[in-house]
Write a structure and sequence with these properties.
mainly beta; elongated; 9-stranded mixed β-sheet; about 200 residues; single chain; 4-stranded mixed β-sheet
Length: about 200
Amino acid sequence: MNDELLKRTFNVELNPVDGDGRTIHALCVPYNQPTQVNDGHGPYTEVFRKGAFSRAVNVPNRVWLNFEHHPGFSNVIGNGVEFEERDDGLYGQLEVDMSAEGDKALRFVNKRVLTGMSVEFKPMTRDKPVNGVVERRNVHLDAVALCRVGAYKDAQVLAVRTPSVVPELQPHTFDPELAAKLARFVTVPDRLRPLEASE
């Protein structure tokens, strides 16, 4: 097993949807895409296979969310909520903390300033090259980071849940003409009919 933490960075695209406003949905790591990488010991080709992140699937809350893997606990802006391995890659839901740093990160994500996503992992086995390609089949996912540049075009933030706005109910006056038109299609309960002015 290699004790060195390795980092891989991927591209991001944003599609806001309704929700709580603090959960990032992302394709964190694409599978079956050989890519040239360099961990400081020379370039080589690497590919991730389905099943490599089964540890993260079982304990998603142990995966940190941070900014560009800067060291220190103060840089942690959230954590994993759920990870799922599909045929095309590792999908994740990551919750951003309610903090000044978390709010800033969400603003930059929604403004598309942060256009990359990175994973920090530790290989759990010695992965020997197969036909010149190192296949990652068993790794420990330590952290996911928001960053500014990406490498894999298919890894992307699928959505950032944004709050659903419910308009405030406003008082209204009774319109007899409108009520008569609606009466042809719906029955209005007596308790909802306007009270007649008492004489």
